[in-house]
From TrEMBL, chain A:
Main localization (coarse): membrane
Membrane-topology descriptor: Multi-pass membrane protein
UniProt-listed InterPro entries: Brnchd-chn_aa_trnsp_permease (IPR011606)
UniProt key word Transferase: no
Subcellular location: Cell membrane
Family note: Belongs to the AzlC family.
This protein's name: AzlC family ABC transporter permease
UniProtKB/TrEMBL annotation, chain B:
Transmembrane segments: 6-28, 40-60, 66-95
UniProt KW keywords: Membrane, Transmembrane, Transmembrane helix
UniProt keyword Transmembrane helix, yes or no: yes
Species assigned in the record: Microvirga puerhi
Source organism superkingdom: Bacteria
InterPro entries assigned: Brnchd-chn_aa_trnsp_AzlD
Membrane recorded as keyword: yes
Pfam families: AzlD
Lineage, opening ranks: Bacteria, Pseudomonadati, Pseudomonadota, Alphaproteobacteria, Hyphomicrobiales
Protein name as annotated: AzlD domain-containing protein
Length: 236, 99
């Protein structure tokens, strides 16, 4: 009876590791979620619509991009295309993580609904020296998901009381978060070239052509730059 | 608790597209064995996309945002994620006040 079940022990340990690893990103996401809800309200969405979007889409970058250019009635095709451009990275993220994560095929189709930049990046890092288990993934997924749905909805409800988000610099939290995440990919020569080219092309396209094209063109330019910078004989 | 039909359809479309991108990788994973330059390009996707999303805000909004982004990038290599965000937000507030 007192004998600890080794399976259960490792399950708990991995879940705790997931919680510990995701905590900074989850805490950072709270002001960002509040901000998202508050901004969405100013664009004419109701708190219920904000909650539904966060629960079904669950993708901060795509949601912010959608809200930034939100008009009524909503341009469905343009929003779907913009969402695809911003989220198409998931295809390669999923392909990369799939063989490294300890989930059955069916579990992956459920579990990958919760894939975010943060949980993906943390899992890739963990996979370098330890197995990425379902418990580890689930702990991160549930934490981030509940956190995002609650904070965005709360932001929508409180929106009118918070006033202008720019007053607190809260509008910059998203930018700062992304800079922090990019730094996590290190500063090898190829990464620096990627970041520089992506930033330059995105800023130029945004200035001369406009959103949402800066995301796809900047990203593609950065990827092409990495391909060229790596050289023909690059080792993996 | 109001729901606009067009808004609802837009949210559903965004949700379907996003779920598709999240699981599409599962369908191609077995056929993706990348090496060399292709691997480097593949590995560059996350930073390239993240940077492309924020570059206009960081670089072309104004001097306060550009400077705050530079400060954030500087501390991002030295501090944990949450501290990085706090430094970024505080510096943008201070810089906007003086610029």
């Amino acid at each position: 009876m007192d004998q600890p079940n080794p399976l259960k022990t490792s399950y708990r340990r991995d879940a705790r590791a997931g919680l510990r690893d995701i905590a900074p990103a989850a805490i950072a996401a709270i002001p960002i979620g509040l901000l998202f809800g508050a901004v969405a309200i100013t664009k004419g969405l109701s708190p219920a619509e904000v909650a539904l979007m966060s629960a079904l889409v669950f993708a901060g970058g795509a949601q912010f991009a959608a809200i930034e250019s939100w008009v009524s009635p909503a341009p469905i095709l343009a929003l779907a295309f913009g969402t695809f451009l911003i989220n198409v990275r998931h295809v390669l993220m999923g392909a990369s993580l799939s063989p490294k994560i300890g989930l059955s095929r069916t579990e992956k189709f459920v579990g990958f609904f919760f894939m975010t930049d943060e949980s993906w990046a943390l899992s890739e890092r963990r996979a370098l020296d330890r197995p990425v288990t379902g418990a580890y993934w689930a702990a991160m997924a549930v934490t981030l998901y509940a956190n995002w749905v609650v904070s965005t909805t709360l932001g929508a409800v409180l929106g009118s009381f918070l006033g202008d988000p720019a007053r607190f610099g809260a509008d910059f939290a998203f930018t700062a978060l992304f800079i922090g995440l990019v730094a996590g990919f290190g500063r090898s020569r190829v990464t620096l070239v990627t970041v520089g080219v992506s930033a330059a092309v995105s800023a130029l396209v945004h200035h001369f052509i406009g959103a949402p094209w800066h995301v796809a063109s900047g990203a593609l330019a950065g990827i092409a730059a990495a391909y060229l910078a790596a050289g023909k004989d690059a080792r993996s | 608790m109001s729901m606009d039909t067009t808004t609802l359809l837009a949210i559903l479309a965004m949700a379907v597209v996003t779920y598709f991108t999240r699981v599409a990788g599962l369908l191609v994973a077995d056929r993706l064995a990348l090496t060399g330059r292709a691997k480097a390009a593949f590995d560059a996707i996350p930073p390239a996309v993240l940077v492309a999303v924020i570059a206009p805000t960081a670089l072309t909004t104004g001097w306060a945002e550009a400077l705050a982004a530079a400060i954030t990038a500087f501390v991002a290599f030295r501090l944990p994620l949450l501290a990085t965000i706090i430094v970024g937000v505080v510096s943008v507030v201070v810089l906007r006040h003086f610029m």
